[in-house]
Design goal:
- This protein is mostly helical.
- About 75% of the residues lie in helices and about 0% in strands.
- The longest helix has 29 residues.
């Protein structure tokens, strides 16, 4: 019975055109990538003192917290809207979050292209990829939900773990493991996870500057991820053809 159900689910996934499947996978990747921005916003809510000195002449501490909380809520709503609400709502929310992120960076005089890409890039990608007609399956929604939970735990329990970033590492490994198991019926979640990982890695190396060059292990990790993405995309293409 379980095997039969898996075959039925795989057959349904094959009915989706290849271009649509890849766009939906990229949309899921953008939602996952957005989780890092949500973590940054939430950190400003929990630790407003880290931003307050740069904003003392513009906003009171309470204003900083409310602004960061609004960005956090807006980012979460933008992600959820890709599954439940019309695409116009998703695009509007995502663009609003991108504009608010850029405003926050301007007010805090934050320096560096990396922070700009991490905060503004995900909502812009979400807005661009939400323009299509089809919505991602609701069975995928728990993936960004789990990643957002890991980001929240990372911020709220920063002093609980002996390993810095433990909730993020654990959350990513859980998502990666289940998406690999999901390959039996649908390769798109694995494509999304790999794409999110690759984009995050590449932006770190490209934008940090020549002072930080990838080690052999990091280069191998990126190469293997790219190869896995190509293999999963090829699997999706073959399924679409058959």
């Amino acid at each position: 019975m379980i095997t039969g159900g898996l075959h039925v689910r795989a057959a349904r996934n094959r009915q989706t055109p290849l271009a649509t499947s890849l766009r939906l996978a990229a949309l899921l990747a953008a939602a996952l990538w957005h989780g890092l921005a949500v973590g940054a916003f939430l950190s400003a809510v929990v630790y407003p003192d880290s931003l307050y000195p740069a904003l003392h002449s513009r906003l009171p501490a309470l204003g900083v917290m409310l602004f960061a909380a609004a960005c956090t809520a807006g980012a979460c709503l933008a992600i959820a809207s890709a599954w439940f609400w019309p695409r116009s709502v998703t695009i509007t929310l995502a663009l609003a979050v991108a504009a608010a992120s850029a405003l926050g960076l301007t007010l805090t005089h934050a320096q560096g292209d990396l922070l700009l890409v991490r905060l503004v890039g995900p909502p812009l990608a979400l807005a661009a990829l939400a323009t299509g007609k089809d919505r991602p399956p609701r069975t995928w929604l728990w993936l960004p939900g789990l990643w957002l939970t890991a980001a929240a735990l990372f911020v709220l329990s920063a002093n609980w773990w002996s390993t810095p970033g433990y909730p993020l590492y654990a959350g990513f490994l859980v998502i990666l493991g289940i998406s690999v198991l999901w390959l039996a019926v649908d390769a798109r979640p694995a494509i999304a996870v790999g794409l999110c990982f690759e984009v995050t890695y590449l932006t770190d190396f490209v934008l940090v500057g020549p002072s930080h060059t990838p080690t052999a292990g990091e280069s191998l990790t990126m190469a293997l991820t790219a190869a896995a993405l190509a293999g999963a995309a090829l699997r999706t293409r073959r399924r679409a053809i058959t």
